[in-house]
Structure formats: C-alpha cells, structure tokens
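Contributing new records

If you add data, match the layout below exactly. Sequence lines come first and carry their own label; structure lines follow with theirs. Keep one chain per record. Anything else will be rejected by the validation script.
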Amino acid sequence: MEQKLRCDLDMGSNLRKMRKAKGLSQEKLCAELQRRSCDIGRSTYEKYENGVLNIRISVLVALRKIYGCDYGAFFEGMDQEEV
C-alpha cells in the first residue's frame, strides 16, 4: 500500500503579506535581520516565503520585533480545516 505524504502547513503567504505591508523588499528585510544578528540571505528568506524551507525560531523572533506584532500574526488562517 502506497502512503501519501501530506505537505505541512507553511506561513509563507503570511510572511510575504507582512513584509509587503511594511513596504520592504526581501533584500531590505534581510539587511534588517542581519543587523539583528540573524545571518540570513535573500535566497533563504525567499524559500521561507515560498514554503520550501521552515523558518528558524530566531528569525521569527526578529521578525516579530521588526513588524511590531504578536506571534499569532505569523499563523493567521492556518488553523482552518482543509476542504
């Protein structure tokens, strides 16, 4: 019997929406993250937004400070049942 692998949830669309709402390019956001001791490049951050790579907790902590939001904003809409 073949087992289907289900993709895990990703917060990529929320990350993209928050970055754009703040008026930041991926490059500018990564520069700000690097100033906050998160050594991350644009290509890695792009993978977070595209759901290819899971985001590190240290990056999430820094993003919360940059965006001035609570952690719930990163998970918005992710607890809805699939149809």
